[in-house]
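Q: What does the assembled structure look like for these inputs?
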Amino acid sequence: MQYAVPRGTKDILPADSFVWQKIEAACRKIFALYNYMEIRTPIFESTELFTRSIGKTTDIVGKEMYTFEDRKGRSLTLRPEETAPVVRACLENNLIGPDLLTKLYYIGPMFRYERPQAGRQRQFHQAGVEVFGSNDPLLDAEVIILNLQLLSEIGLKDLEVDINSVGCTKCRPAYRKKLSEYLKDNIKHMCADCQERFINNPLRVLDCKETKCQKYIENAPASSEVLCEECKTHFEKVVGWLDGLMVRYKVNNRLVRGLDYYTKTTFEIVSSKLGAQNAVSGGGRYDGLVEELGGKPTPAVGFAIGLERVIEIMTNDKYQILPAGRQVTNEGRIIIYFATIGEEAKKIGFDMLQKARSRGVSADMDYLGKSLKAQMKVADRAGAQYVYIIGDDEIKKQSAILRNMQTSDQQDMSFDRLFDELKI
RNA sequence: GCGGCCUUGGUGUAGAGGCAACACAGCAGAUUGUGGUUCUGUUGUCAGGGGUUCAAUUCCCCUAGGCCGCCCCA
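A:
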């Protein structure tokens, strides 16, 4: 084989694209129900946008970005996530403002340079929403509910919502300090990664799965103990709304997401039906990001769903939500197939073919000079409801054979009556 | 970036240091102007490179890719 797709990328072939179409349709439907409008931004942005928003010490910025220089030496980066580009676009086009609630959604590819494995590719797809302009805890709850409704619309079950509050610019430094003080005495017993994290971003130590670190993490001060009054009441209200709406969730004090812009609420939806990469979606509030990127202070919430992970669950044989691949011969692709024998018939067939198409009737014919038998077979596989068979005799009569492929009935049907008779 | 497993026709699978097998799909024919059944024929040199050997697709090494775990995240 001469060429192969770049590592960590995949072709979505005709046999699989119907799954993607189904998911995208579900996303658009649910987003519309909640009054979100679509935004599309470029695949690449200036590198600065991401380093500023996501944070220099994060893994994404530190080692996962596809960054390159263009011909004029500008540093550009293939978007690793979509929140920062959406904020940028909103600021640039004045989409957000005081007393204005802006609700946007997106669907598209993202890029991160990571070691590929199940549920993790270098080009992957996310669908997500961003809401700007309100700090109402009910909105946090609504976004979570929207997320859940979308996943259940797609057909996913047995999902778990993990939720936490990481505080705000007022209380996070205090928590960081408290955590650092606690870790200072214990860090020497913890793993090498944690020692690194301790220096760069102590919060992320809480995320460590290393067994020898667990006991220290368990005893670490929880963020909930240190939240300021505002963050504390905000969090209580969010979970209060979730309780009232009968949403099942789990407060997880160790949920620290890998992007620095989050404030207050963070959440993740995980599925037990996935392997190590078990997060189907994740999101939270980021009240400081708009200002960080040059706008007026504007509260915001959002989430992103990992579409490959959704599809992994949907197409997993064990769960039977959708059959995996191999749907090339899905029935009903075309209404009528024009089978022709000879050059003259081909010419007439093509005229009729175009006439059918111009009337909005999907139709096709042979371009490979196949035998009639083979043309019938192709028509069958394309799911044609009718085949119109044109040969020399038919040209003389100006009337050809119309075969109903379901019933196998055949009748003579003159050229000029065909479309009226079929009511197409 | 680290560790483990894997890589055979279009697809899914056998196999053994020295004729590469099976199923399905595809194409053609049986039915010389007709599909979905049946039968027949046909499509590969075993990811790429190097080494061991009289001989490797089968053993060893490297590279690439896939999968699984760590890390991280969607």
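Chain A has a mean pLDDT of 87.
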